[in-house]
Write a structure and sequence with these properties.
Layout (H helix, E strand, L loop, with lengths): L5 E7 L9 E5 L2 E5 L8 H10 L7 E3 L10 H11 L3 E5 L6 H10 L2 E2 L4 E2 L3 E4 L1 H6 L11 E3 L14 E4 L5 E4 L6 H8 L2 H6 E5 L12 H7 L3 E4 L12 H9 L4 E3 L5 E6 L5 E5 L9 E5 L6
Helix pairs in contact: 5-7
C-alpha cells in the first residue's frame, strides 16, 4: 500500500499480556484507543505514527479503567512520549487502586512537563447529552451511552463509532449489557455504516453479541483483541460460530497485529493479519465499506 494516502487506517496491536490496544487514523488525526503499549513497546507506536508523518498522537481514548485497558506505567510513557492533544476518559470512579491512580494522574498536574494536563474529557451521561445529534452520512464520530443503571462497571465502558469517508469502526470496551446491545442494534447509523466491529470484552460470550445484534448491524469484519494464552479462551466458540454462520470474517491479535487500510481512490478496504515475519502465516480480507455499497 502507498502509506501516505490513507483515507482511513485501523490497527489492532498484539500485546505481551492480556488487554487491548488499537489505533485509528483519518484526516491527519491519529487516535490511540486504550493506554497500553504493544509488543515491542513505544517504538512500535512511534513507527506507526511516522507512517502518517506524525510524531505524537492527537487523541487518547480510554474505554475502561481496568488495567487491561489503562495500565499506569504505559499511561505515563504515552503521556511523556506521545503527548496527546486530547484525552477522553470514562466518567466513572474506578474501583481498583491502579484505576484510581490513572484517573488522578490524568486529572492532575504533569510533574515532568510542569503543566496541568489539559483537554481531558470525562465521558459521562451529561457530556454525551451535550453533543450534537449525530447525522446519517456524516464523517463525524459518534459517542453512545452505556448502561449507567448497571451495577457492573464494564457496562459503563465508552462506546464510540469512529467514522470517516472510508470505513467505520465500532469500539465497545468491555460491555456486557443486553439493554445496550438491543439499543445499538436499532440504531440506523450503525446499521447503515458499521464496517469493523471490535468484539466487546475481548470476545467473551456474555450475552452482548447475539444473532439479532449481528443480523441488525451486519458488520463486514470482526476484530478480537485477545492474547494467545488468555485464560478464558477468547474469542469464545459460540461467538466464533455466530460470526462464521453469517459469513463475517474474524481476525484476532493472538499471533500478531491486524491492520485495515483504505487508500484514496479505492472503494474497498484490505484487512491484513500479520502473524510474525512469515508471509505464509499472513492472511488478508478485502471488503467494500457500506458507504460504497
Amino acid at each position: 500500500m502507498n502509506t501516505n494516502k490513507f483515507i482511513t487506517k485501523f490497527r489492532a496491536f498484539q500485546l505481551n499480556s492480556d488487554g487491548s490496544l488499537f489505533s485509528h487514523y483519518k484526516n491527519n488525526t491519529y487516535t490511540l484507543v486504550e493506554a497500553r503499549l504493544p509488543k515491542g513497546g513505544i517504538e512500535v507506536l512511534l513507527s506507526d505514527l511516522r507512517i502518517h508523518g506524525k510524531s505524537k498522537i492527537d487523541v487518547l481514548h480510554i474505554t475502561s479503567w481496568d488495567n487491561d485497558h489503562c495500565n499506569y506505567q504505559s499511561l505515563i510513557e504515552i503521556l511523556n512520549k506521545l503527548r496527546p492533544d486530547r484525552i477522553e476518559i470514562p466518567g466513572y470512579e474506578p474501583d481498583s487502586e491502579t484505576g484510581k491512580l490513572c484517573r488522578k494522574t490524568l486529572l492532575g498536574y504533569d510533574e515532568i512537563h510542569q503543566e496541568r494536563i489539559l483537554n481531558v474529557i470525562e465521558v459521562n451521561n451529561s457530556y454525551i447529552r451535550s453533543l450534537p445529534i449525530a447525522q446519517n452520512g456524516s464523517s463525524n464520530n459518534v459517542v453512545y451511552q452505556g448502561d449507567y443503571l448497571s451495577l457492573k462497571k464494564n457496562d459503563w465502558s465508552l462506546i464510540k463509532l469512529f467514522r470517516s469517508m472510508g470505513f467505520s469502526v465500532l469500539s465497545l470496551g468491555d460491555l456486557e449489557s443486553c439493554r445496550v446491545s438491543t439499543r445499538l442494534s436499532k440504531n440506523s447509523i450503525l446499521s447503515n455504516e458499521l464496517d469493523v466491529l471490535i468484539l466487546p470484552h475481548h470476545g467473551a460470550d456474555n450475552g452482548f453479541i447475539t444473532g439479532e445484534f449481528l443480523d441488525a448491524l451486519n458488520p463486514k469484519i470482526a476484530i478480537c483483541s485477545s492474547n494467545n494464552c488468555n485464560q478464558y479462551d477468547h474469542p469464545r466458540q459460540n461467538i466464533r460460530n455466530m460470526l462464521s454462520s453469517r459469513g463475517i470474517p474474524l481476525m484476532t491479535t493472538k499471533r500478531g497485529d491486524v491492520v485495515i487500510g483504505q487508500l484514496e481512490g479505492n472503494s474497498y478496504a484490505v484487512a491484513i493479519s500479520y502473524q510474525g515475519d512469515n508471509l505464509e502465516n499472513q492472511r488478508s480480507e478485502k471488503f467494500y465499506p457500506k458507504r460504497y455499497s
